[in-house]
Amino acid sequence: MKPAEVLQIMAQYEASARNDYALGSPRADQLLTLIQFNVFRALVDNTSVLGFTMDWLDEDSISPWCADVPESQIRFCATSLRPSSLQREISHHPWIDLFPIPQMRDNLLRRYEDEDFDEMALCNDLVDFYDVSNDETGLIVWTNPWDSSGWEVSETFLRKWHWVVAGCDDLFQSTNYWRGIRGEEPLVFGT
């Protein structure tokens, strides 16, 4: 699917959700889709924050961080989105660069290099808002997408993809903060 088509689908979905909300009839079955839509939208927003293009949607794209990027460009990035040394060393697809959790990006890169996970399954669990086939979400974004304190990991995602978030102390802290606001027990993060 081309970037323009994806953006059109996003706009249509967002208009439909807003219309349902305005009519006072939000559908409960839209909640999961809306959560995943918000994660996808957060990645699109982070694309702009980084100065990337929507070419990251092309499956053959390579991260701009793998090229010799001037330090001045990196300094203007939100701190949470600045590339780690692994991002600059390992050739990878740019979708990894869009998460504001450096340890998560590095965890993904370590496995990405060896093609040691099902990238499509992970993508579906994170952002497949227009064809949701699972009944749980992966991540939730509550605030500005470049602010890692606004991200939360679900219990289901933690069980299935624990290695993706291993060592992500800021994500664990923010997850339990948001769970606490809802009166839920904190998640226990293992290795």
Give an overview of the whole structure:
InterPro entries: DUF3425. This protein is mainly α. The protein has one domain. The chain is 49% helix and 3% strand. The chain has a two-stranded antiparallel sheet. It is globular and about 50 Å long. The protein starts with a helix and ends in a 10-residue tail after the last helix.
Offer a few descriptive terms.
single chain, 191 residues, mainly alpha, two-stranded antiparallel ribbon, 9 helices, 2 strands, 49% helix, 3% strand, globular
What is the H/E order?
A: HHHHHHEEHHH
Low-confidence stretches: 129-134
Q: What topology, given as strand order, has the largest sheet?
A: 1-2
| DSSP summary: helix tally | 9
What is the average per-residue confidence, as pLDDT, rounded to a whole number?
A: 82
Helix and strand content put the structural class at mainly alpha
Strand content: under 5%
- The domain tally reads 1
Strand elements, count: 2
Evaluate the radius of gyration. 17 Å
Task: Name the overall outline.
Answer: globular
Distance between the termini: 36 Å
How does the major sheet shape up? 2 strands, antiparallel
Percentage of residues assigned to helices: 40-55%
What are the SSEs and their pairings?
Blueprint: H1 3-22, H2 30-50, H3 71-75, H4 85-89, H5 102-112, H6 119-127, E1 139-141, E2 151-153, H7 155-160, H8 162-165, H9 169-181
Antiparallel strand pairs: 1-2
Summarize the structure.
The protein is mainly α and 191 residues long.
